[in-house]
Amino acid sequence: MTKPVKFSILDLSPVPQGSDVRTALGRSLSLAQHAEALGYQRFWMAEHHGMEGIASAATSVALSHIGHGTNTIRIGAGGIMLPNHSPIVIAEQFGTLEALFPGRVDLGLGRAPGSDQRMAMALRRNLNTDANEFPRDVVELQALLEGDEQLPIQATPGQGSKVPLYILGSSLFGAQLAAALGLPYAFASHFAPQMLDQALEIYRRDFKPSNQLSEPYVMCGFNIFAADTNEEAEYLSTSMIQSFVALRTGNPGKMQPPVEGYRQSLPPQAQQMLAGIMQGSAIGTPGNVKIAVEAFIERTGADELIISGSIFDQTAREKSYTLAAEVRDALAA
């Protein structure tokens, strides 16, 4: 290890089977408080729509809930799907968050809809496929948060808040945009790792310094399921694996309880699909997780890992993040 790597959390606020949104958001707050005590860098939530198993659709509202229950950990979106929104609305929302929680707010931006076409239309945005629209919206949003006096309108609140932006992606497009704008780049390797190496190479090669960032900064999504035994960790991971399978087969729903031997029970094509998705993952005891994390960091040169790990039982979920923090500290040492 040539440098310490920060650990953060990406929480989709999963809604467990037999539960509801209120419970899911309460679990998210408990996890954020736990993460703050463990020294995690930031706690991000993501925008998804029309999914009964995810409680963070109104992402800025959910983040306000997390912010009021914590004191020091950074909070942010990982991310806001900007094509769904007018930049002025996002500037106002995150300007408000920055006013409430000064110096703690991040704004990660993605260009996927986070929904299907019907939901995109319901969000009152058109389905324009112009490849330049997302970069233009990012630049406009950045100018609104900086309070650029040349703009015909200003975001109130938001103007002058200078909330830091991050570009999210799982393809080469986001890498190119983040490099061109001199912004940090977060790759979704926790569920779409196929283009990871090429994207990071392009980002670092083409990076241009900006007012926000002087050199490339790479964040990588990574799944961790840590427990006292490999068997328990594998068992706990099956709730998220079931969610992956349900999503890919068009049947998303609430997070299911873990199932013994679930992965082995799947047909070969489903197992092959999971093998591709789960490349950015570590499942097992802290010792085995450390080996996998160290190899992933060596492969990517990541400055920060943003850890995901949807676990049905809240106590086991928080313990997994405790063990992950111990891995972080062991690597730093």
Mind explaining what this structure looks like?
With 333 residues, the chain is of the alpha/beta class. It has 12 helices and 9 strands. It has helices at residues 21-38, 59-68, 87-100, 117-122, 133-146, 172-181, 196-206, 230-248, 262-265, 268-277, 286-300, 314-332; strands at 6-11, 42-45, 74-81, 105-110, 165-169, 185-187, 218-226, 281-284, 304-308. The chain has an 8-stranded parallel β-barrel with strand order 1-2-3-4-5-6-7-9, surrounded by 8 helices. Helix 2 links the parallel strand 2 (42-45) and strand 3 (74-81). Helix 1 (21-38) runs parallel beside helix 12 and helix 2 packs parallel to helix 3 (87-100). The radius of gyration is 19 Å and the shape is globular. 45% of the residues are buried.
Strand content: 15-25%
**Oligomer state of the chains in this structure:** single chain
Rg, rounded, reads: 19 Å
Domain count, please report it.
2
CATH architecture of the largest domain: Alpha-Beta Barrel
**How far is the first residue's CA from the last residue's CA?**
9 Å
**CATH secondary-structure class of the largest domain:** Alpha Beta
Low-confidence stretches: none
Helix content, binned percent = 40-55%
Q: What summary fits the major beta sheet?
A: 8 strands, parallel, barrel
